[in-house]
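fyi for ur records
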Amino acid sequence: FEGMGKRLLPQRTTIVLTSDRDYQANGALVMHDREEILAYVKQQEHPVFLTGGAGVFEAMIDDCDQLYRTVIAAEFNGDVYFPEIDWTQWKLDHVIDGIVDEKNHYPHQFEFYRRK
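which gave:
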């Protein structure tokens, strides 16, 4: 959330997972553990999308039944990476090729997986 400039995603509820009990995020829900998020998700009629850093994915991946992954055909330096996934638990449902334009400079594709 902070890495995105605290920007809310359009037409979605944003949940920020943090251990900081005093953290406030204008326009977003702030939750402090996995159980709190799961309780919220169970009350929702629409799918809930999870974004975040490696810690968020590691904490929640076992509770997800769909995985949307953007694959960019380029190499970048970074200090945080997506955690290792047991791909035998996932089936690739479909792929959409992204469009390279002035906003998206690199070839990319969107992969949609479902848990087996």
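The first strand starts at residue 15 and ends at 17. thats all i got for now
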